[in-house]
Amino acid sequence: MMEEPSAPQIVVETQTVDPPADDHLLNLKALTEKLRLETRRPSYLEWKARLESGPGPEQTQMEENVEKVEAAAENKLTSDPLKRFKNMEEVLSWIRRELSDMRRQDQLLARQLMRLRGDISRLKVDQTCQLHRRMLNDATFSLEEQDQLSELLCEAPLEPGLGLSAPLRLIGVTKMNINSRRFSLC
């Protein structure tokens, strides 16, 4: 018989200095080095090749754009509004004016919010009143229908099947208890 080839065995050498147990990234990197693992993803290989080849035209253009943005940021920092004042009194008066303007804006916003809150609560009350009005109209309509039906039933001869059953009468249930409805405007 032929001998089956055995699976390759991986020998992992242990280091004398172990990384801290809580650093999982270092453990993973050490394990990939020991096992000589490398990524074969095309995107990673392309990125690595571009990085090793040196700066390309896109990279130099990006660096120029970054320099322009940094220069503009420096100009903004140097055009500080405080540099236009001659002394500290002017600066303090400017700050006081800004603070009073901010306070006025805050008060205006607070008034607007209070007005909105009042409008919302008024709309809620109106909506609730309309809902209760509909309920009352429905109840009135159903009571009118019951009155019409009871008039029709009163004209017809009374039969024992139309009344309440004896067990219901024994526990105190009457036609009035069944047919009455109560609504409130709370």
From TrEMBL:
Domain of life: Eukaryota
Matches recorded under InterPro entries: FAM167 (IPR024280), FAM167_domain (IPR051771)
PANTHER family linked to this entry: PROTEIN FAM167A
Family affiliation: Belongs to the FAM167 (SEC) family.
Protein name, UniProt field: Family with sequence similarity 167 member Ab
